[in-house]
Every structure is written in structure tokens, then in C-alpha cells.
Design brief:
This protein is mainly alpha-helical. Helix content is 69%, strand content 0%.
Length: 96
């Protein structure tokens, strides 16, 4: 793989993290792939730290409220789950 390909891949990953179109980040294409990866890692770390506090609050609430209510709180705080429910996953596994 060429450095240009690695840069393109890193720009795509960075765009995904930032929820942007990769074309919006073309001005970064002159940077080496390692620098882009490091920048993406820094953004991911900052986001994780920010979300950790929210997760702690939701976790604390889950200890004092019924599970269905805790699930609604979590969904409101973080959005709907990005994976299919277990029953749906089982049914698609056996689909023809």
C-alpha cells in the first residue's frame, strides 16, 4: 500500500469519528498517515472521557430505578442501540 492510500484510509476513519464527509477533510491530505491516526486517537480519547461521566450517571441511575426505565434513560442519553435485538439477530441467522 502506498502512503497516499494510507492517508486516504486515515482520512476516512477520521471523517467517521467526526461524523463528516471525507471530502470535508481533504485539506488534511498532505499530512502523513501517522499524524492523522494520532489526531483521530486524541479525538477518540477526548470523546470517551466526556462520555464516561454521562455513562457513570446513567449507571448510577440504573441502580435505583427498574431496568426498563434505566434502559429508556440510557437510550435517551446515548441514542438507540446500534445492534439488533437478540431475537432479531437469532431470526436473521436462520433466514433462508
Amino acid at each position: 500500500m502506498t502512503a497516499t492510500h494510507h492517508t486516504t484510509v486515515e482520512l476516512a476513519k477520521l471523517a467517521r469519528v467526526l461524523d463528516r464527509d471525507p471530502a470535508d477533510l481533504n485539506f488534511l491530505a498532505t499530512l502523513p498517515p501517522g499524524a492523522l491516526r494520532e489526531f483521530r486517537d486524541q479525538i477518540t480519547d477526548l470523546t470517551a472521557r466526556r462520555e464516561a461521566r454521562r455513562m457513570q450517571r446513567v449507571g448510577a441511575a440504573a441502580k435505583i430505578v427498574p431496568a426498563p426505565i434505566a434502559a429508556k434513560i440510557a437510550e435517551a442519553a446515548f441514542g438507540p442501540p446500534s445492534w439488533p435485538p437478540r431475537s432479531q439477530a437469532r431470526s436473521t441467522r436462520h433466514a433462508p
